[in-house]
Amino acid sequence: MPGVPFVQWVMDRESPRGKHKGMKSYALKRLKSVILDYRVKTAATALAAAAPRGLREMRNVWALKFTEDEIECHFSGQHMNVNLGSAVRRIVAGDWTASDFPPMNVVAIGGSLWCLDNRRLWVFRKAVLQMVPVIILSDPRDPQVQSFVARATKSAMERWEADNFEPKVRGRVHDFAVCADDPAAAAAAQDPGLDASQQTGPSSGTALCPTNDGLSGSKVACFCIGLLVLIAVLLHSPNCR
């Protein structure tokens, strides 16, 4: 094993940290409900049924998922390493087999297997291998599982909030503008039935005021143009002569 340069390079480079920082938004949204459901179901009975730490299995390479959906483009593009291509060619030539590589760490969540060793998974898929060695990590107390769930949940929630709670109208962020130093507007923005300790709106004399960026101007312009066209039609009509 240590005599295989690519294997040693992978073992040196592939730490369990930071494998899914670059996950795309749609992948994060898909993971969001799965991870939250996974946390609810990790009771004592689930822990007892979890696979033991370090259990080596053989799984179909196409049943494993990348922690980043576009990882193939990632490694095929500017991040392509000469060792990756060399390993693919050696496997295809029959010099190496899947058993020559250390088993990949896989997190089992929601019925899916998320591979933490994306480089090896990419190589195995490119080499068209079928069965590959893996270690199933399904115990939520496992540090790698905790790291995966924590990072994926944080990233998913941040992206989810950014996509769904940012005020937008037709792609433009101009629903509301901050009107500073306007106590009357600030008071109107608050619920009069709440006392000061219960108010959740803007503080220090600020309020959210609706704006009409580009909307009122365009309406006025259209109205003026329509009015001019109507006047021109009336002036050239036979009844006005």
Concise structural overview:
The chain is of the alpha/beta class. The chain has helices spanning 5-13, 25-40, 44-49, 71-76, 82-93, 118-126, 143-164, 183-189, 215-235, and strands spanning 56-60, 64-66, 104-109, 112-115, 131-137, 176-179, 207-210. The protein folds into three domains: 5-163, no CATH class; 167-210, no CATH class; 213-241.
Any overview of this molecule?
The protein has 241 residues and is α/β, with parallel strands linked by helices. The chain folds into three domains: 5-163, no CATH class; 167-210, no CATH class; 213-241. Helices cover 45% and strands 14% of the residues. The chain contains nine helices and seven strands; from the N terminus they run H-H-H-E-E-H-H-E-E-H-E-H-E-H-E-H. The chain has helices spanning 5-13, 25-40, 44-49, 71-76, 82-93, 118-126, 143-164, 183-189, 215-235, and strands at 56-60, 64-66, 104-109, 112-115, 131-137, 176-179, 207-210. A five-stranded mixed beta sheet has the order 1-5-3-4-2. It has a two-stranded antiparallel ribbon with strand order 6-7. Helix 5 packs across helix 6 (118-126). The longest helix is centred in the middle third of the chain and has 22 residues, at 143-164. It is elongated. The N and C termini lie far apart (101 Å).
Question: Which characteristics define this entry?
Answer:
disordered N terminus, alpha/beta, about 45% helix, two-stranded antiparallel sheet, five-stranded mixed sheet, 7 strands, about 240 residues
Structural class: alpha/beta
How many angstroms does the end-to-end distance come to?
Answer: 101 Å
Spell the H/E element sequence.
HHHEEHHEEHEHEHEH
How much of the polypeptide forms β-strand, as a percent range? 5-15%
Average pLDDT across residues? 60
Helix content: 40-55%
- Count the E strands: 7
**Which strands sit side by side, in order, in the main sheet?**
1-5-3-4-2
Shape: elongated
Largest sheet: 5 strands, mixed
Number of domains: 3
In terms of quaternary structure, the protein is single chain
Low-confidence stretches: 1-23, 32-52, 164-215
Number of helices: 9
